[in-house]
Amino acid sequence: MNENKFTRKYLQDAKHLIDLNSPYSGRVSWESPSNIALVKYWGKYGDQLPQNPSLSFTLKHSKTKTSIDYQHRDGNQSNVDFYFEGKRNEKFEAKISRYIEKISAYMPFLSQLQLKIDSANTFPHSAGIASSASSFSALALCLCSMEKKYFGTLQSDDEFYQKASFLARLGSGSACRSTYGKLALWGKTDAISNSSNEVAIPVDNGINPVFKSYHDAILIIDSGQKELSSTGGHALMENHKYAYTRYNQAQENLKSILAHLQSGNEAGFAQVVENEAMSLHALMMSSIPSVVLLKPNTLVAIERLKEFRLKENINFTFTLDAGPNIHILYPQSVCEQMVRFIESNLLNLCENGRWIDDEISVGPTQIE
Fold first, then answer.
1. 360 contacts 58 by C-beta, under 8 angstroms
2. Is 246 a residue whose pLDDT tops 70?
3. How would residue 126 be classed by pLDDT, with cut points 50, 70 and 90?
4. Start-to-end CA span in the chain (Å)
5. Of 309, 312, 315, which is closest to residue 332 (Cα–Cα)?
6. Which domains does the chain have, with CATH numbers?
7. Closest-CA residue to 266 (of 320, 340, 208, 183)
8. How far apart, in whole angstroms, are the C-alpha atoms of residue 83 and residue 67?
């Protein structure tokens, strides 16, 4: 019954978001971080809706800064000029133009504006970090700030970030989680009553403090261009033999990981996180056509990590997105030990010895 309640609400609200009050020109900027999924989103339906719930850590240093300069639009102009890291990018510009046109159903005032969008990442391209999550969340937050300024809506934080999450999802599914800090959940689950397929929600109550101190060491095994787009990856699940088994697995893993996050059970948390990562790649390898994204050095690094954990008896875990690069998740208490191990035993497996030292963050921030 409530499957599309946010869509209905924002379409209804849009009737009051048509005529801009003058002067309608200015600049707005946000920084929004990427995130790393602990329970993976893999498979979608409808308009960017997930087949299963997902849970992620929001990162601190891997983020996108987006600024929008806006003014009245001449009807003959294209309404989007897009610059990435200081240079005009026509490929991204076409994608962002389609996105702006799409979300104008919820923000019809956008059709009256000329938008000059400047975007830049703090992390290198193809580093195994979800740039679409940080970029679309930053863009959505900018647009919500514009709505708030000119129409007096979205005055409460809950309303503001909820709509930003909704809009970000329409650009990139995982982006809806980046509008919140620390832990964010996206997708309907019986485990949390206010969960939704349309927006992400923050998960903070009852989480053991140890998990709020977690770091994310990202090993750049291979920075080559992605062999599988996100859209292509989700499409593999449409006729996958194990699709429904996977969706049920994700629901159960979510319940388990929430219990471990609340109890402080780091070993149980690690078991679920690694099961999710390996299941994701097993699904790709058993798809038709089969897709193998793991590299030889990925497998060697995983074996070294497992051996190190067993030998030293310390708590940490690892995960992977749809690519060869590894995210090592560990608490602050073992930070020095982990960094020494990475530098002495894993850097030779990384492309040009590259890795990124990140950690859990409080979420996006507006830049005045």
1. yes
2. yes
3. low
4. 41
5. 315
6. 5-205 (3.30.230.10), 209-359 (3.30.70.890)
7. 208
8. 10
